[in-house]
Write a structure and sequence with these properties.
455 residues; alpha+beta; three-stranded mixed beta sheet; DUF6600 domain-containing protein
Length: 455
């Protein structure tokens, strides 16, 4: 009995120690932490731009910038047509309604040509928008940047042309229908004089850009709170906006890789006054802060791929050979002598009609009856004198028709009454009152009465 008790106690102790050891091992082990692998952004070359943008525009070889792209959109203006501004952690971001808006509005620069319109010059760095900003006078304004404008350098009044700028009242900044509130372009000069440049900059992948108006200022003008959108990388070209999220394709552009791609079609038709170019020149980007290595892009000399099928040569129409002209059998034209020894040919003799040519009788002219010149009883024409002695007739004076000048009736003038000369008006002489003593009125003289005379 004691033996069984000892065995039971021993087994219980062993089981208890084994359980405690297992618990201590499980509690002391650290909990694993899951970390999402960091994905590197895709890298592309300019050939991706050529492929993705060719269906929506045309590529041309521009003398100043090399290969540039023109959108097939009538009336298109960058950062104004079909799009709006959205605030993100990177600043004000342009959200385009076009399928191709992921590239031209976030890479490269824009320039305007009077013949072609707006030209997009591809670039290497991504930004929410490559624009310059202004504010003041109740307006916000922006303008696309051209090649050669460096970020962080002070922009003068004439650095950006005035027709590049687009202005909108402060209360409509960030509206989805912002294109309905653009100011009239004719007022740009007045608005520019009342605004100042916004110099607030930001960086993305080492590239500096202007991020636009301050968020707090826009909230104060619009009277509403602004919820920033979040940017996410997309896996294919394009962009999509949903629930305060923007999925945009923003890969890196290889700068030191020779480009092997080329657009499917390049419009090399020169504009008026421009010489045609046989190949695309090397385009060097302007030195600015967007290219930290200050390296030039590779050459864009076109090289056809090796697998391009050879086009059959178009047959040219055969031109029948003309037989040498035989001398005509014409007695009127002299025959040209042969020149077998390549001697100098004599001068061609003048044509002389043959002697046996029948004379053509001269056609008789009709005799005109002689008209006797009688004096004309017309006072307007001078009379021609008779020529009885065969004396030379005086030259007949040329007839000059009289000029009938119509008599314009004279407009009757209004009769002005003749004023009689003013006669001097004699004023009545003041009557003298005779002075009498005691101021008594003088006595009137009795009037004499004439007596009638007796006949």
């Amino acid at each position: 009995m004691k033996t069984l008790f000892k065995i039971a106690v021993t087994s219980l102790v062993i089981a208890t120690s084994a359980t405690s050891c297992y618990v201590s091992q499980t509690t002391s082990a650290p909990r694993p932490v899951y970390q999402e692998p960091q994905q590197e952004a895709d890298e592309i070359s300019f050939s991706t731009f050529y492929t993705e943008l060719s269906p929506y525009g045309r590529w041309i070889d521009y003398p100043q910038y090399g290969r540039v792209w023109i959108a097939n959109q009538p009336g298109f203006v960058p950062y104004q047509t079909d799009g709006h501004w959205t605030y993100t952690a990177y600043g004000w971001t342009w959200v385009s309604d076009y399928n191709w808006g992921w590239a031209p509005f976030h890479y490269g620069r824009w320039s305007y040509d009077n013949f072609y319109g707006w030209l997009w010059i591809p670039g290497y760095e991504w930004a929410p928008a490559w624009v310059s900003w202004r504010s003041g006078g109740g307006y916000y304004g922006w303008a696309p940047l051209s090649p050669g404008i460096s970020i962080g350098v002070e922009i003068g009044f004439n650095t950006i042309p005035q027709h590049y700028w687009c202005f909108v009242p402060n209360q409509y900044m960030g509206s989805n229908n912002i294109r309905n509130y653009y100011a009239v372009r004719n007022n740009n000069v007045t608005i520019i004089n009342n605004t100042t440049i916004i110099n607030t900059t930001n960086q993305y992948r080492g590239a500096r850009y202007w991020q636009g108006p301050d968020r707090n200022d826009v909230e104060r003008y619009t009277g509403r709170s602004i919820q920033p959108y979040e940017l996410h990388d997309a896996n294919k070209p394009g962009q999509q906006v949903s629930n305060n999220n923007i999925n945009v394709y923003r890969p890196r552009i290889r700068q030191n890789d020779m480009e092997k791609g080329t657009p499917s079609f390049i419009d090399n038709k020169p504009r008026p006054g421009q010489l045609p170019t046989t190949a695309a020149p090397n385009r060097d980007m302007p030195s600015n802060d967007n290219n930290p290595n200050n390296t030039a892009p590779p050459s864009r000399q076109y090289t056809p791929p090796a697998n391009t099928p050879a086009l059959p040569e178009r047959p040219r129409p055969s031109v029948p050979q003309q037989q040498p002209q035989q001398p005509a059998d014409n007695v009127r034209l002299p025959q040209v002598p042969q020149n077998p020894d390549n001697r100098p040919m004599p001068s061609r003799p003048q044509y002389t009609p043959p002697t046996n040519t029948p004379a053509v009788p001269e056609r008789p002219r009709p005799s005109m009856p002689q008209q006797s010149q009688q004096p004309v009883d017309n006072p307007r024409l001078p009379q021609v004198p008779q020529n009885r002695d065969n004396r030379p007739m005086p030259s007949r004076p040329q007839y000059t028709p009289p000029t009938y000048t119509p008599v314009v009736p004279q407009r009757p003038r209004p009769l002005v009454p003749q004023q009689q000369p003013q006669q001097p008006v004699e004023l009545p002489k003041p009557m003298r009152v005779p002075q009498t003593p005691n101021n008594k009125p003088p006595q009137q003289r009795p009037q004499s009465v004439k007596k009638p005379q007796d006949n």
